[in-house]
Design brief:
Elements: H1 10-24, H2 27-52, H3 64-67, H4 74-94, H5 96-115, H6 121-144
Helix pairs in contact: 2-4, 2-6, 4-5, 5-6
Length: about 160
């Protein structure tokens, strides 16, 4: 007689159902899952690091042409940037169809800022690649995130 034993942890059970779902998905849905995960985790990590500066000193990435007229320091502005990035990452996790365009717009702003700083053109080019990936997430979300773009609108 064969008996099955219950899983020793809930996380093992969750992963047991998650992995087959990824394997069974078509390539476009797998791409959606990868982009959704990346644009959830990266903005949250980078946003949190704006408070800790463990990865890099983020203040140097703010163009003086943008920061000089402000009534606060670049360091203080980076706190606000960190909050926005964390919110953007959470938005992608909750509603990628809306979060994708938000992240793309945020990256467009970052690219413009970086183009104003000599010597950061390589970072701007990398962020342009991320911008295109955020657009791809947004397009894939039209198929794999069935909710309307804005919660206020309803499909009749």
């Amino acid at each position: 007689m064969t008996t099955t034993q219950p899983s020793s942890s809930a996380s093992t059970t969750a992963w047991a159902g998650f992995i087959p779902r990824i394997r069974a998905a078509d390539p476009a849905e797998q791409a959606f899952m990868i982009l959704r995960a990346a644009f959830t985790v990266a903005p949250i990590l980078f946003g949190a690091d704006k408070f800790m500066h463990l990865m890099v000193n983020w203040d140097k990435y703010l163009a003086p042409a943008l920061s000089n007229p402000l009534p606060f320091t670049p360091h203080q502005l980076m706190y606000a940037v960190g909050v926005v990035e964390i919110i953007a990452g959470l938005l992608v996790a909750i509603h990628p169809r809306l979060g994708g365009p938000v992240v793309a717009a945020w990256l467009a702003g970052i690219i413009i800022n970086l183009l104003l700083i000599p010597g950061f053109y390589d970072v701007a080019l990398r962020d342009f690649g991320l911008f295109l990936a955020a657009i791809a997430l947004s397009r894939l979300a039209t198929k794999y995130d069935p909710r309307p773009l804005l919660w206020l609108t309803r499909n009749s």
